[in-house]
């Protein structure tokens, strides 16, 4: 069978490998000049920056990569215990832990916080949350929610109040809060005694040369198996034609295949799809909004700028939400006598972006004000931008997604999958595993319609 995959991110590449192993002919169309999607790196003058810090979590993904996908690629383990949240002019571990918060806050705040946690667990969590703010408060109590300024962090990430964000975002993005939601204060206290040890044992992998080593290795394996990749080929038109699907790209090329598996943003897929069935309501698609991220790359003539890998800033006094010193992830990310910071600010799709030197001056002043950075040896800056970095889960998005998935079922030869294809937050590890699993669905004899129906139905169940 002939398959076209749209998008050469982690999901698309790993899916392609699975399809090739099953004996199919596969071509991937990618709009960018390189593979990886959001899992990319930028290099200049001996410096390497990822498009935000990315890690592989767990032994399962290491086993899958080693045993099934790219056996020649052994990703080093790393110590991921140097991330912190900066709030109230204090540092707290990330993901935050009960013991650590109580240990580092003012003594006068401890008793009210303990009382509030008990109240939250005894009363609030029995009431279903109608928005993200309620979901978090049900988990940690109102005192910690306000103390850590979690509302401010969500505002920076999404540009809206957490009262306007679906609680489903908490279920997906804040899974580490499940231990707060589902355990008594006594159990939390007992577990806290083991948390540091468990954190040290956490299996975290990171390529020493930058995160793009992973998609580049996936690309090598895909090509080795006989797959074709067409870079700089943005899709402009998709049309189902009886026993095939035809795709036109911006460079006036036409590709045809029996089936399409699409990992590009579902809005792009549907806006460019033409068939005998009615087009999806454009007003419905417009309700699916994404945030974009600007990465301010700051260069320093010093070997180290801060003591941590990543710092998260929740308070309104700081323009940015996350700062990473990639050299603290791997020494190879900067020259020996220099270092850098990657400062992230998220924007709306239509929001004006300011990357001026005045903006950078404000960033440097705020970094210096925190007392956590050595900025006196600052040299210069440049910026990167990435679209579709964070899907906005507004209060009505569940119904919108269900309607779109039901519409997608009407396409006979197209399946939309992956983080972008389903408008669904996903980790790197899950993107690879789920993409490879998608490819494996088409081994030997298969019924495309049944695979499609089952795949979408399973995803819809996640929202029920």
Write a structural description:
The chain folds into three domains: 3-39 and 209-287 and 395-462, FAD/NAD(P)-binding domain (3-Layer(bba) Sandwich); 97-197, protoporphyrinogen ix oxidase, domain 3 (Orthogonal Bundle); 290-391, Polyamine Oxidase, Chain A, domain 2. Helices cover 38% and strands 22% of the residues. It is built from 18 helices and 20 strands. The protein has helices at residues 10-21, 59-69, 98-104, 107-122, 132-140, 142-147, 150-158, 168-173, 178-181, 185-201, 213-224, 266-271, 282-286, 357-370, 397-408, 418-421, 428-440, 448-461; strands at 2-6, 25-29, 41-44, 47-50, 56-57, 83-87, 90-93, 204-205, 228-230, 235-241, 244-249, 254-257, 259-262, 273-274, 290-300, 310-313, 322-324, 339-348, 378-391, 414-416. The strands form five sheets. The chain has a seven-stranded mixed β-sheet. It has a five-stranded parallel β-sheet with strand order 9-2-1-13-20, covered by helices on one side. A four-stranded mixed β-sheet has the order 12-11-10-14. Helix 4 (107-122) crosses helix 5. The radius of gyration is 23 Å and the shape is globular. Mean pLDDT is 88; it is low at 185-200.
């Amino acid at each position: 069978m002939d398959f076209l995959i749209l998008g050469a991110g982690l999901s698309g590449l790993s899916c392609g490998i699975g399809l090739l192993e099953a004996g199919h002919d596969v071509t991937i169309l990618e709009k960018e000049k390189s593979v990886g999607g959001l899992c990319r790196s930028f290099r200049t003058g001996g410096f390497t920056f990822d498009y935000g810090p990315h890690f592989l979590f767990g032994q399962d993904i290491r086993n899958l990569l080693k045993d099934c996908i790219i056996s020649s690629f052994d990703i080093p383990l790393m110590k991921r215990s140097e991330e912190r949240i900066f709030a109230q002019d204090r540092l707290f571990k990330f993901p935050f832990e009960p013991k650590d918060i109580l240990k580092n806050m003012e003594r006068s705040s401890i008793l009210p916080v303990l009382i509030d946690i008990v109240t939250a667990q005894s009363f609030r969590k029995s009431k279903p949350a109608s928005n993200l703010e309620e979901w978090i408060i049900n988990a940690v109590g109102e005192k910690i929610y306000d103390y850590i300024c979690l509302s401010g962090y969500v505002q920076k990430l999404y540009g809206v109040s957490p009262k306007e964000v679906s609680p489903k975002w908490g279920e997906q993005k804040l899974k580490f809060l499940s231990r707060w939601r589902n355990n008594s204060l006594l159990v939390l206290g007992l577990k806290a005694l083991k948390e540091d040890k468990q954190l040290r044992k956490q299996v975290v992998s990171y390529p020493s040369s930058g995160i793009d080593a992973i998609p580049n290795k996936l690309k090598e394996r895909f090509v080795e198996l006989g797959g074709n990749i067409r870079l700089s080929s943005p899709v402009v038109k998709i049309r189902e034609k009886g026993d095939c699907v035809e795709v036109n790209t911006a460079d006036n090329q036409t590709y045809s295949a029996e089936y399409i598996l699409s990992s590009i943003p579902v809005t792009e897929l549907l806006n460019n799809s033409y068939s005998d069935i009615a087009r999806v309501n454009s007003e419905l698609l417009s309700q699916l909004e994404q945030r974009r991220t600007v990465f301010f790359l700051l260069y320093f003539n010093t070997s180290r700028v801060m003591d941590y890998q990543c710092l998260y800033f929740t308070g309104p006094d700081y323009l940015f939400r996350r700062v990473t010193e990639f050299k603290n992830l791997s020494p190879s990310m900067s020259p020996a006598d220099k270092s850098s910071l990657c400062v992230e600010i998220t924007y709306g799709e239509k929001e004006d972006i300011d990357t001026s030197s005045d903006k950078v001056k404000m960033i440097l002043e705020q970094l210096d004000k925190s007392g956590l950075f050595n900025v006196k040896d600052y040299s210069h800056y440049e910026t990167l931008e990435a679209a579709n970095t964070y899907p906005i889960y507004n209060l009505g998005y569940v119904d919108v997604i269900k309607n779109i998935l039901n519409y997608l079922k009407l396409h006979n030869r197209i399946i939309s999958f992956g983080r972008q294809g389903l408008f669904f937050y996903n980790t790197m590890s899950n993107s690879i595993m789920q993409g490879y699993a998608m490819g494996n669905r088409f081994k030997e004899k298969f019924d495309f319609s049944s695979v499609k129906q089952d795949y979408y139905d399973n995803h819809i169940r996640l929202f029920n």
